[in-house]
Amino acid sequence: MNLSVWYDLFLFALLSVLLVYIFFTVRITNLHKVYFVFHFFMMLWPLCQFATHIVQDVQLQFVYVSLSFVASLMLASGWLLFTLFLAGDEKRLTPKSIALLFVPAAVASLGTMINPFHLFASPTTDNYVDRSYGPLFWLTMMVIAGYFLTSLVVLLRAVRSRSSSPSLKKQIRIVLWGICALASFVVIDILLNVVLAQFLPIIPGLTSLGIFIADLFFIFVITRYKVFDLVSIAHEDIINTIPHGILVLDEDDAVVEANRALRLFIDIEVGELFDIEALLSSVRATGDSRQFLDHYKRKEQDLFQIELTSNRGGGLHFILQTSPIFDASRSPIGHILTFQDVSQERRLVQELNRQNDVLHERNRSLDRTRLELSQANRKLEEMALTDSLTGCYNRHYLTQRLTREMTANVEQRIPFSFVLFDIDFFKMINDRHGHVAGDEVLYRTAQIVKQCIRSTDILARYGGEEFILYLPCTDRKMAEKIAEQVRAAVESNRVKLDPSAEPVSVTVSLGVLSIEDFEHQYVPDNLEEYLTRLFTEVDKPLYQAKKNGRNRIEFAEISRISDNGTFEARM
């Protein structure tokens, strides 16, 4: 078999690796789910192209050929939808407009799969590996080109919009490079392998290579700029309302966030490294800058500040405050620095000979700054640990909590349980009442569950309409009792969505996993992998509960950890 046949499979494998990388390195949001669908259609093209060369049956070959072009149509229409989300136009979308957006792709896909009178494609020999294209092919290309041109207009409009932030514009420019790369390879593929096919040898994999290169641009934007991180989008609005410069750094002093007011003091962008020693050496300090630097490096918990004067703006006086950021285990993971412009106060102090009333006002201003910083810090910490919609803990917090407790559970043979549940037929609620009503159902369900559990239990949103309960010091019997309380409470709850409409009643399906029998005091080497396996095991009874009719509880078939860390079935 020609080695070029395996080229598309190789690119499919690379795209699969990128999908796995994104899944395990970013916080999964609804917008990430849209991207995953988009990525799936990117992977489908090289896979179908490879399958066309592998199979021998002519009809099956055409299925793969048509499926690859259907994937490209879905890719183009999905990309337009993805572009509208990226540019911030999702609020204008309605279910009807979204449906109309996919109509041209659906019609073209239907014509491609039916292939009437071989108007789309026909084999030039005895199979579809060598094929010629008809009018329907060019119509399909026009539909795809229309989608991508519309996306291009949306992105260019967002780049030129004054309301778009500099960070968003930079992200969109990088995405535009990816689109240009993909379009270039597609045009070259059509020109060489379709228009000039009778004069030149076939060059395989051009479109697949373009898809892979374009995806590299998308991955860079997602991982570098956290373009889909809804938590970052939410807290950006908060810190931009604070009149002082805010600089958030990670543990490596890389800039995670910088608000608009910071531009008055320093020029730095998200992703760049912040050098505090270079900053202190470029300004005049009123106080001991070495002491401030030592405090910064020690990452002591209390606030520390120093007054600085720079040459910016004809002489800028500002107060620099630093405060470390701690995670749930009180380990330092970064810094928050605030820049307060005190130039006007200093001029007044000089003009009024340091009168007491000016000093008093300055102290009040400093107190307000501390309060604002403290409130902003609390909001940031709360948003990092909780789900903004339901108020429950998020999956990240649950993983951190379990990582700390799991070793003690296994060593001391303390039983523990998980209850994974999700709302039955939740998609029907969204389709019938809208996503706002769906959000209300999620919130009300979470609140009623909180009333059923103990103060030591942890309720976290697992994803979408799925929630998970961690029940410490709980065996199977107690876990069953709590799960039944949750099921009954949700079933009896009535959610009022509209004053004129009947209340909505929902049910939940629950899967329960209890670990209560430890053969030895075995501590897993990789706790994150161990937790992933636990989550996988508790997902099985949830699936069984759905399969057996929903609104019921099913139990996992394991209850013990063996001496090598594997799970053993209940006897």
UniProtKB/TrEMBL annotation:
Q: Which residues form the PAC domain?
A: 302-354
Q: Which InterPro entries match?
A: Diguanylate_Cyclase (IPR050469), GGDEF_dom (IPR000160), HisKA_7TM (IPR031621), Nucleotide_cyclase (IPR029787), PAS-assoc_C (IPR000700), PAS-like_dom_sf (IPR035965), PAS_4 (IPR013656), Rev_trsase/Diguanyl_cyclase (IPR043128)
Query: What are the entry keywords?
Result: Coiled coil, Membrane, Transmembrane, Transmembrane helix
- The residues forming a coiled coil are 342-386
**Taking every annotated instance into account, which residue ranges of this chain make up the domain GGDEF?**
414-558
The family database entries (Pfam families) matched by this protein are listed as: GGDEF (PF00990), HisKA_7TM (PF16927), PAS_4 (PF08448)
Transmembrane region positions? 6-24, 36-56, 62-86, 98-117, 137-156, 176-196, 202-222
Transmembrane helix in keyword set: yes
Q: What is this protein called?
A: GGDEF domain-containing protein
Q: What is the lineage of its organism?
A: Bacteria, Bacillati, Bacillota, Bacilli, Bacillales
